[in-house]
Please model this.
Amino acid sequence: MRDNGWYRVLLPCGLYEGSPVVTLTGWPTETTPLGRPSDAYVTRIRDGLHETYPEMPPTDIDNYLDAALTPGS
Model:
């Protein structure tokens, strides 16, 4: 971790076809309180999932998001 700059923390997201995937963020998780994303953000993600996976029923998308946004799941 670098001590300066906005995008200084890499968070692992898992694997994609055997390759590690990370996201960049600005603050270490220890100093940033976790909270539910805004409704507008969740709606944007829901729309993107529907566009990417049009065969996925809306209830499955909602269930997926609910599980992803529930702490400890």
Notes: The first strand starts at residue 9 and ends at 16. The mean pLDDT is 81.
